[in-house]
Amino acid sequence: MHLIDVDHPLIDHKLAVLRDRTTNSAVFRQLVDELVTLLAYEATRHVRTEPVEIATPVAVAQCHRIAAPRPIVVPILRAGLGMLEGMTRLLPTAEVGFLGMKRDERTLEVDTYANRLPDDLSGRQCFIVDPMLATGHTLTDATNYLLDRGARDVTALCLLAAPEGLTYLEEAIGDRANVTVVTAAVDDHLNELGYIVPGLGDAGDRLYGIVD
Ligand SMILES: O=P(O)(O)OC[C@H]1O[C@H](OP(=O)(O)OP(=O)(O)O)[C@H](O)[C@@H]1O
Ligand SMILES: O=c1cc[nH]c(=O)[nH]1
Ligand SMILES: [Mg+2]
Fold this sequence. Notes:
Structural class: alpha/beta
Shape: globular
Number of helices: 6
CATH topology: Rossmann fold
Low-confidence stretches: none
Number of strands: 13
CATH class: Alpha Beta
Radius of gyration: 17 Å
Order of helices and strands: EHHEEEHEEEEEHEHEEEH
Oligomer: single chain
Mean pLDDT: 96
Bound molecules: 1-O-pyrophosphono-5-O-phosphono-alpha-D-ribofuranose, uracil, magnesium ion
Helix content: 25-40%
């Protein structure tokens, strides 16, 4: 597993406002959207391209464009939806698949309640978007889901990651695939409830309001 902890003063600033408990949902959503754009710039650095000749008004230019098969972006519902638009703005030709996953807040195990993904992901570059990597159970299950469908190149974009979750993911995936985590920050630890410390609280609740 490869970890990219993106270091940029704009990310630091936006993350500071995002973490603030007094930041309301509207501002929170806006900041998530802006942060994913900054992370996506790093996360797509190795997106596959192919050469193409483009006729400019002056001459023919040797250019590159994103190669087929097109990448796929997979938001993990619910909170990952807050990162989808920022990601597809940078990768407008990407396909979008969906995974609905909810962790049981008592056992911290994951329930997958929805999936809408192509059956065959071989040869596809996959970009999972989910703001929080806490115990790592959700991201590990999501990654396994894609690997089971033939994907071998998976990049996860997270706003915050916990060291415990990164270790769990690395041990669970091993060398079965090329998995990269791109994050805005690696926080200190998980508390006894499985929340990232200092974190930002429950990302889904802060984006969309509290749903039981
Ligand atoms: O690393 P883990 O310990 O598995 O936790 C991380 C997961 O928790 C949050 O989702 P949640 O289960 O709260 O669902 P939600 O997006 O509907 O709020 C978050 O968006 C991740 O998907
Ligand atoms: O801190 C955490 C951990 C899991 N999910 C969240 O939304 N926040
Ligand atoms: Mg939640």
